[in-house]
Design a protein that fits this description.
The complex is a heterotrimer of chains A (414), B (361) and C (152).
Chain A (H helix, E strand, L loop, with lengths): L1 H16 L8 H6 L5 H9 L4 H4 L4 H5 L26 H9 L2 H4 L10 H7 L1 H7 L8 H5 L16 H12 L14 H6 L2 H7 L8 H5 L12 H6 L3 H9 L1 H9 L3 H6 L29 H33 L4 H20 L5 H57 L6
Chain B lengths: L2 H14 L1 H9 L2 E4 L7 H21 L9 H10 L4 H28 L8 H23 L4 H15 L4 H10 L6 H33 L5 H8 L6 E4 H26 L25 H9 L3 E2 L2 E2 H17 L1 H4 L10 H22 L1
Antiparallel strand pairs in B: 1-2, 3-4
Chain C lengths: L14 H27 L11 E6 L7 E7 L2 E7 L5 E5 L10 E3 L4 E4 L4 E3 L5 E3 L8 E7 L2 E5 L3
Antiparallel strand pairs in C: 1-10, 2-3, 3-4, 4-9, 5-6, 6-7, 7-8, 9-10
Classes of the chains: A mainly alpha (414), B mainly alpha (361), C alpha+beta (152).
Chain lengths: 414, 361, 152
Amino acid sequence: MKTAAATLLALMCVLGSAGADSGGSSCVNCHLLLEDARVLNPAKLYDGDIHHQAGLTCADCHGGNPNDESMEAMSPAKGFRGVPKKAAIPEFCARCHSDIAYMHRFNPKMRADQLSQYLTSVHGKRLKQGDAKVATCVDCHSVHNILAVGDTRAPVHPSNVATTCGRCHADAAYMKDYKIPTDQVAHYQKSVHAAMLAQGDTSAPTCTTCHGNHGATPPGVSSVANVCGTCHVFFAQLFEKSPHQAAFAKMGLPGCVQCHSNHEIVKPTDSWVGAGPNSVCSTCHTPGDAGLRSAQGIAQDLARLDLAIAQADTVLDSAERAGMEVSNAKLELSSAREALVKARVNVHTFRDAEVQNVTDPGLEIAKKADQAGVAALRELNIRRKGLGVSLITILVAIAGLYLKIRQIESKPQA
Amino acid sequence: MSTLYRRTLAWLDERFGAGSIEEFLRHKTIPIHRHSVWYYFGGMTLFLFVIQVLTGILLLLYYRPTPNDAFESVQYMMTQVRFGWLIRSVHSWSANLMIFTAFVHMFSVYFLKAYRKPRELTWVSGMLLLFIIMGFGFSGYLLPWNTLAFFATKVGTDMGGSIPIVGKWMLIFLRGGEEVTGATLTRFFGFHVAVLPGLATVLLAMHLMLVQQLGMSVPPGVERAIAEGREPRRIMPFFPNFLLRDMIGWYAALGVLGALAAIFPWELGAKADPFAAAPAGIRPEWYFLFMFQTLKYLPSKVLFVDGELLGIFGFSAAALVWVAVPFLDRQIGFGRTTRFFTGLGVFVIGYMMVFSWLALR
Amino acid sequence: MSVPEIPEKGAQPGRRWVNVLLGSGLAASVVSFLYPAVRYIIPPPVAESTNRSVVAAKADELKNNTGKIFKFGSEPALLVRMADGTYRAFSAVCTHLSCTVQYRGDLHEIWCACHNGLYDLEGRNVSGPPPRPLKTFEVHVQGEDVVVTRNA
């Protein structure tokens, strides 16, 4: 097979060199005729590549002479660089991508620090130590059919990042020697963030959002709260001022992650607070300690407000269905709902008083709304009073009619 | 008679012969016997119909017949308009009361054989009026555009669609399209406030004129007793004696209506969402329940005929027979009450009551 | 055939009282029926349901670059007067967890205090947790009134 191909190749190059200039695409022309996928695919794929669209040819990366139809095109003397070794790939790409002046010819906003970032990452460091299993540029960005980050088909598009990282990091066999878990992607897929991403919200965090992309390094225990706090601003601020900040720092606990997990971040419920079966507080706090008492207080505040709102809702709904005017009360009740939302934010002060500050006004509002609903339902009954009046007049009329009949017919009939 | 009355009558008489009409009405009499109490139900139905017209006109001042506004306008009426809740509840309750008294009136006429010659046309016009009244009920029910009404109309009109040949066309005619939409609402509104009132007025005029012309029918048994001298022939003048008694009944009805409106006000419900799933237990109004339940019991196929179709044909045939009873009951022309027709009547009442009860369980 | 005779005038001593009772009973009952009907016919102060359209403010009530929360049906809504004096109206129910949003004149954006969500003046969700834009309403100035209507 190989000899046949080589013969064919030689034949064509001889025939080809008899011809004229091939217009700068001799690489593609020859490689498209080959059968070995390793040399055929680059030629086949390159049409869709972003570099191709920018006007770059094979030679711009690999060197050589794209006008030469013969094998001379690939001579190192003529500048052919060939396929770079794994450890040399970052520098291979950085030849252009770290050259700001060059990159700005194509995209003025483009960053040119990917290589320097990469060298700080775990991948970069291990590559320099000779580890050939770590990710390099082409492992994430693909090669010969590289797409822009914003293209939904690109392996580095936010919706695909977890899958791309998972190609190695979720492969237990591949990661055997590294002593790090391989369940992160599985956990992440169960998270609220993955769900948001699946719904098309590209602002939702994926692996690179928290770990970085080129300078990929997991955030440290003491700084993970800052990472979460980039989006979850209020929670980070409150946590920082809470008693947990100092306590966690002393114990080396990873801030938000301690209760909310790092990868499998799911929607929390009120039952996480307090001393119940689902409680996260009980992980550290023991029954009887001040912290757990505080947690129970908070849980009760939330539960009370939730119940008050549900009750008012039921009453107002039945009043509305009966045809009474309760739109004002319903509007007021939405403030109580807002208080509950804000109270759940204030849970992160881990102080019962702070939560009560928000739930107490909320309870007042819910109670008033409930009263309005009850009053509306009572109004239905008050109408009976008006009914009483008209019933009396009707009874009088009936009495009058009856007596009139008796009167008319009192004479015995002849 | 006061002079004012006499002078007004004379003035009108010179213009359209009011005198002879007044004379006729003044001498109108009602036969009195042990079944006379049933004579009140015709007038009661008419009275409730008048209540419907009056409250209906009041509702028309605020109601909007489009899907965007219908529910909101009823809600507005019930919450913002003074006594709007009362007018609306009275209209809804009176509708049900009227249908009930109409049925009582119809069955009392049936069992007292008042349909016999010469009153066949009174019976036919009355039956048509009954169908029209039920049409009023069906069309009016949709107008608040709440969930219950929307799906009850869907189910109700669905049944008509299964009739072969004309069924599809009938469905599209009723619904104003393939599905129940805003077009259906507008159409039903047109039926409810224009078409049906027009038809009802014509038939009512005919029905009342026939009643005045032919007088009140005396049941055959009583007539025989009078003829054989076992019972004296007793009558009562319509003005003022019977009318005063009528008025007691009407006032009592008003009292009942007011009480129902205040103690059991008609619910507003939730606005209809055509794309939501039908809530469980959708039923038509009580006067359609016996038909609804019958259709539920019929198997989906009887021999080669679609079960629902069989049910619809069955009811149509039954209705036709019922309307034609004056022409079918030959014996009654000879003053002989046959057990067959009495039995048929008992069967019909029993059937309707049993199947309505079954539907409510 | 017997017809009950109409008694002569004055023959019965209680006759007048019966007439009085009957007359007053009939009159009183007629009044108790007419009273609700008459009050019903008089239009209420709010001429139309406020579910579809509502007067949100008076024409000179809002300064430029300020917002006002008003009641629209049973939900809060936001009326914003822009820097150039024109009006925009949105549902004030945040699309994240239904808190009530407010206009921030300093940011020229609509902000939700619960989780720091931000919407621009087209109602688009531009920052923070809100997943969807705010519902927009139509605003028209009719004389003295700024009227907000739901989009059809």
